[in-house]
Design brief:
Chain A: It comes from Pseudogulbenkiania subflava DSM 22618. Chain A: Its main location: membrane. The complex is a heterotrimer of chains A (about 210), B (about 375) and C (about 575). With about 210 residues, chain A is mostly helical. Chain A has seven helices and no strands. By secondary structure, chain B is α+β, with helices and mostly antiparallel strands. Chain B has three domains: about 90 residues, no CATH class; about 150 residues, Immunoglobulin-like; about 100 residues, Cytochrome c-like domain (Cytochrome Bc1 Complex, Chain D, domain 2, Orthogonal Bundle), CATH 1.10.760.10. A five-stranded mixed β-sheet of chain B has the order 3-2-1-5-8, with no helix packed on it. In chain B, strand 6 and strand 7 form a beta hairpin. The chains are: A mainly alpha (about 210), B alpha+beta (about 375), C mainly alpha (about 575).
């Protein structure tokens, strides 16, 4: 999202001279996003308890998209490790690959939306559909914001070797990606994998 | 200095206001005297704090105002004083909370032998239902709601056939018997609030809420909606008549049941023989017309009835129409057929019998000095 | 820590970059403040229009029921979110955090600038709703579905959509600003400025910001879901409904879920507004009574405790909502527990006055006024938090009086006090004293006249959000006279705010020069080399902090205050004194 993006922009900016602030800022931002999704999931789980709940089918596309995001995150991790060892080429390659895979993930999500709509699971067709589009859409928006920051990071690592500034940007990118991956895995699990009865049992005992 | 005097004057004025105020709790008419007691305990404790702290500040303002050559003290921290104050506050809090929770425990636990009735809210009118001889209310669902079945009872449910329907806004209750009120809304949030009963609860579409009370005093009490429900909110009026059990039973016996397809919705308290316009006025009140249509020309949700009869209205599409009985009948039964310019198309269709319609139109006629030449009949 | 030297800060030159697209926290603070005051004036006018109808029903034909509910809604929403939240965090927070912790600016100046412009966009979208077909929403500031998105409520076509979109934009702005304030406090404090040496103003704003970051997502969630229900036909909050005789296609949603989400934001929101006010008023009282704040550590812990507890009390707004009735026990208990740290704060303010030397300057008048109004508002909260007392009072004028006293009048008095207090630092000039006193007396006494009697109308049972009360038999005719009286008082208070505006404008250009530290205060913002502070705040070198913020009237000192960056021995809080004592022996 734009917050993360400009936070990162500022963090690396020469005029601030305070690169260390980027890290805590990203942590706080991820905290805010966590609370945001926690609230959505709270609503989701409450709604799941009603009698008319019917889950969406798990299309193969979901698995494909999850794999894409996983690989995207791994590529950024690779970029980060390469950067720490001073290998600029490896860092750039990982960065490019990670971004491309993330774009592929977003395209895959849109494709998934079209597939589900074609199968009569449109957004207003039932509570599970509504929540699915809402949650996956919001997750996608956060990733799209990350891609804007990713674009700025690409620019920053473009020239002369691995700078501390460039490396920090890559590290922050990677961290945000891991966060979004973890978030997606939670959503994936709650939307498609874990049986509703199990979720409700866990939540009512807590 | 002025501020100190003003603070003391404020305290004095507040206390005076409290004891002289003509605005106070309505006389209690239910078993919830305990709620009033808890309110009084809270008032006494908080009142004491209010007076003490304001006076303390006033004293400090006088005693420690800035003077030449005087410097503020530089005391060390006083943990002991803080501890005492915290403890004292905690005691005050417990003294308020404990009785409050006891009363609440009773509030959410209706007696098993309560008389059950249902209040149904709809923008902007009240209607009611009592279980019939089988003692059970029939199933309802919003898909069954129609002009002929305004409360949405399931046509096939045997328990619903003998349910007593009160399709106007006045309900009667027996005095001295615990009453459990089931609350249902067909559109938005409402709130069933009768101030002298103290007890109340929201109506929430999609679910049935409830609360209970025992009426202890006979009389006629106003039902208010106390949860914002749109522009007609302030006029969503209803009445509870609390009477002796025998009178209540007699009243209940006169009401029609669901299986009587011919739904009678005569105006309440309309003794036979009163003139048609007076009946129409009562009908306008009981069916909630007055929530949107004033009788004095003031602007409300819909056009005022003052001077309406015989007037030429401009419609939303720019055409004009003479307000005659035929037009009025159409506007009541199918409101969205012709929309008056400047008003939203939000009026629900009303199913009135022909005599009721005639009464209502007769009432509207009295609010206008115009006449309609070709008198059509509805 | 933050800046090695001032040279890194390039002074912007053109008018455009200096005052409009500025990244200087002081300029952004002024932008936030002026925008909030402007939108607050709109809300003030709306409230007076509302009062005209209530005081003199039917006399003003243009205020019909539709308009009335639109005024009610916009008044509430603007005051709570667009005025109070924006002014405390965006205005005071922006101006004071960097100066009070000794930083040169916020850590993310660009983000800070964006935060303001996004906030302005939110305000413009909201104002645009006055001009769309159907006008702004009239659903009440709580926007409860189903009513807020159905016909029968004014503005249910476009008004509600713009309202929700505006809120979502506002939340983005608040998050941008919030990240900045939190990270600045955590990372950019100058040397020697430990957390426990920060002025309570910074503590209040800091904790309030953290709360905003945690609470606003809940509003975001409810806003997005309601917007989906309105525009895409989903049924998150919408059960099967027959609206105006027509069956709608919604089904299965829960209106109560919205209320839970809304109040999970809504209650912390009260403290997002209150905690900065608590902090500021502590500093005003300490400075203007020349005495250290009583129980500083307790005050800090009370702020933190109130902040944490405020997340577990939300459902006390829903005692009669139809939620699971057993929740009532829990939420009544937590609500009354929160009264303890709040009461401690009141005790500590008044105990600070004991044995002090009270200067009744204009900021101090407002601070004392705050104690009195907050006392009423806080105590009446105990009625409404105590579940069984709440039952007859909820949604009556008692509630209106309570929340106006506690989170309307009280924070506004602090805002005024704060503006009179810091205006000399912002402009280098003092505000006019006589006009300030006039403003205080009318506002303070006026608010008592408006809200004190209102409690009694509530006890009588007059429901709130009523356009008119004709022909209700239980309401005596005298209640109408009282309403007329309240309206007159409200109009007088409303008009008096023009005196404040005049004072603000006049003093900016013609006010008496103030010098760098007119109140002889200890905190860092008064120790800047220039007044108003220049770009980068501190000239060549950032200050180094040697003591806490409350060294007033330290025995043996020539002056009755010791600035935080003064290196002289002596003073300090109990911890410092003990440490110094150990060193000596």
């Amino acid at each position: 999202m734009s917050v993360a993006q400009s936070a990162r922009h500022d963090a690396g900016g020469a005029r601030d001279g305070m690169p260390s602030a980027g890290k805590p800022a990203l942590w706080v931002f991820m905290g805010v996003v966590t609370v945001l999704f926690a609230q959505f999931l709270h609503a989701y789980i409450v709604r799941m308890g009603y009698a008319d709940w019917q889950r969406l089918p798990t299309l193969p596309t979901v698995w494909l998209n999850t794999a894409l995001l996983l690989l995207s995150s791994a590529a950024l991790q690779w970029a980060q490790v390469a950067g720490r060892h001073g290998r600029r080429a490896g860092m750039r390659a990982g960065l490019f690959l990670g971004g491309a895979l993330a774009l592929a993930f977003l395209a895959g999500q849109l494709w998934l939306w079209r597939q589900l709509t074609a199968l009569d699971y449109a957004i207003a067709s039932g509570p599970a559909s509504s929540f699915f589009y809402l949650l996956s859409g919001l997750h996608g928006v956060h990733l799209a914001g990350g891609l804007v920051a990713w674009g700025m990071t690409i620019r920053r690592v473009g020239h002369n070797g691995v700078t501390a500034d460039g490396l920090l940007a890559v590290e922050l990118c990677a961290r945000y990606w891991h966060f979004l991956l973890a978030l997606w895995l939670v959503l994936f699990g709650l939307l498609f994998i874990v049986p509703p009865a199990t979720i409700l049992a866990i939540c009512s005992s807590a | 200095m002025a501020l100190a005097i003003v603070l003391m004057a404020l305290v004095a004025a507040a206390v005076l206001f409290h004891f002289l105020s003509p605005w106070w709790l309505t006389p209690l008419a239910s078993n919830w005297g305990q709620i009033d007691t808890t309110l009084m305990i809270t008032l006494a404790i908080t009142g004491a704090f209010f007076i003490a702290i304001n006076l303390f500040v006033a004293y400090c303002l006088i005693r420690f105002r800035q003077r030449d050559g005087h410097r503020a003290a530089h005391d060390p921290e006083n943990k002991k004083l803080e501890g005492w104050l915290t403890g004292l506050t905690a005691v005050g809090i417990v003294a308020m909370l404990a009785p409050g929770l006891f009363v609440y425990a009773a509030y959410i636990d209706p007696p098993a032998d309560s008389l059950v009735f249902e209040a149904v809210g709809q923008q902007w009118q009240w209607r009611f239902r009592f279980p019939g001889r089988d003692g059970r209310l029939g199933v309802t669902d919003s898909r069954f709601v129609s002009a002929e079945n305004p409360l949405g009872l399931a046509p096939n449910d045997p328990h619903g056939q003998d349910d007593v329907l009160i399709l106007n806004s006045e309900v009667h209750l027996p005095v001295g018997k615990p009453i459990k009120v089931l609350l249902r809304s067909q559109d938005v949030l409402h709130d069933f609030y009768v101030p002298p009963f103290r007890a109340r609860m929201n109506l929430v579409p999609g679910m049935v809420t409830h609360f209970w009370f025992t009426p202890t005093r006979t009389g006629r009490f106003e039902i208010l909606c106390a949860q914002l429900c749109g522009v007609g909110h302030f006029n969503m009026r209803g009445y509870v008549v609390v009477e002796e059990p025998a009178a209540f039973q007699a009243w209940l016996g006169r009401q029609s049941t669901f299986s009587h397809a011919e739904v009678k919705t005569a105006a309440p308290n309309a003794p036979a023989g009163t003139d048609l316009a007076a009946q129409g006025k009562l009908l306008a009140q009981s069916r909630g017309c007055v929530a949107c249509h004033s009788d004095d020309g003031s602007a409300r949700v819909g056009p005022s009835w003052k001077g309406l009869y015989g007037k030429t209205e401009t419609l939303a599409d720019g055409s004009t129409v003479l307000v005659d009985p035929a037009y009025l009948a159409e506007s009541i039964r199918t409101p969205n057929a012709k929309i008056v310019h400047g008003y939203p198309a939000i009026m629900p269709p009303f199913s009135l019998s022909d005599p009721e319609l005639a009464a209502l139109i007769a009432y509207m006629r009295t609010l206008s000095d115009k006449t309609v030449a070709q008198a059509g009949t509805p | 820590m933050a800046y090695s030297s001032a040279e890194q800060h390039h002074e912007p030159h053109s008018f455009w970059t200096r005052y409009v697209w500025s990244q200087d926290h002081k300029v952004i603070a002024v932008q936030y403040t002026l925008t909030a005051i402007a939108v607050g004036l709109v809300a003030l006018v709306l409230s007076n229009l509302m009062r005209l109808q209530l005081g003199f029903p039917g006399r003003f034909a243009f205020i019909d029921a539709n308009h009335y509910y639109q005024y009610v809604t916009l008044h509430g929403m603007i005051m709570v979110v667009y005025l109070l939240t924006a002014l405390f965090l965006g205005g005071f927070g922006n101006y004071l955090i960097p100066l009070m912790v000794g930083a040169r600016d916020m850590v993310f100046p660009l983000l800070n600038m964006l935060s303001y412009w996004v906030y302005l966009l939110a305000v413009l979208v909201l104002m645009a709703s006055f001009f769309v077909p159907g006008g702004p929403t009239g659903a009440g500031w709580t926007l409860y579905p189903p009513q807020s998105i159905l016909p029968g409520t004014p503005g249910s076509d476009w008004g509600i959509i713009l309202m929700l979109v505006s809120l979502l934009i506002f939340i983005v702005a608040a998050t941008m600003g919030g990240l900045n304030y939190v990270i600045t406090v955590l990372q950019a404090r100058t040397r020697g400025m430990t957390l426990m040496r920060m002025p309570l103003t910074v503590w209040g704003i800091f904790v309030a910001t953290i709360m905003a970051l945690l609470a606003f997502p809940s509003l975001f969630v409810s806003g997005v879901m309601l917007l989906f229900d309105k525009t895409l036909g989903t049924s998150f909050f919408m059960p099967a409904i027959v609206s105006m005789g027509q069956a709608l296609s919604y089904k299965g949603g829960s209106p109560i879920l919205f209320q839970h989400l809304f109040w999970f934001f809504g209650h912390p929101e009260v403290y997002i507004v209150a905690l900065p006010a608590f902090g500021i008023v502590s500093d005003l009282i300490s400075t203007h009574s020349r005495k250290k704040i009583f129980g500083y550590h307790m005050m800090v812990w009370a702020i933190v405790a109130i902040g944490a507890l405020s997340f577990v009390v939300w459902a006390h707004h829903m005692f009669v909502s139809g939620m699971n009735p057993y929740f009532g026990f829990f939420f009544a208990t937590t609500t009354l527990i929160i009264a303890v740290p709040t009461a401690i704060k009141v005790y500590n303010w008044v105990l600070t006055l004991w044995n002090s030397s009270i200067h009744l300057s204009v900021p101090m008048l407002f601070a004392i006024g705050f104690i009195s109004t907050f006392l009423i508002g806080g105590l009446t909260g105990l009625f409404l938090g105590n579940v069984s007392v709440d039952i007859p009072l909820s949604n009556t004028y008692f509630v209106v009086a309570h929340f106006h006293m506690v989170m309307g009048v009280s924070p506004i008095l602090v805002i005024f006090g704060g503006i009179y207090h810091w205006f000399p630092k912002v402009t280098g000039r003092l505000m006019n004293d006589t006009l300030g006193k006039l403003h205080f007396w009318v506002t303070f006494l006026g608010t008592y006249a408006i809200y004190f009697p209102m409690h009694y109308l509530g006890i009588l049972g007059m429901p709130r959000r009523y356009y008119a009360y004709d022909n209700y038999a239980f309401i005596p005719a005298s209640a109408q006279q009282l309403n007329a009286f309240i309206t007159v008082a409200a109009l007088i208070v409303g008009v008096t705010q023009l005196v404040f505006l005049y004072n603000l404008v006049h003093s900016t250009f013609r006010g008496r020069p103030a010098g760098s530290n007119p109140w002889r205060a200890t905190t860092l913002e008064w120790q800047t080399p220039d007044t108003p502070p220049g770009h980068g705040n501190w000239g060549a070198e950032q200050p180094e902090v040697h003591r806490w913020a409350y060294d007033y009237s330290v025995p043996g000192m020539a002056q009755d205050f010791v600035p935080q960056n003064s290196a002289v021995a002596g003073g300090g809080d109990d911890h410092d004194q003990k440490a110094a004592g150990r060193k000596k022996t």
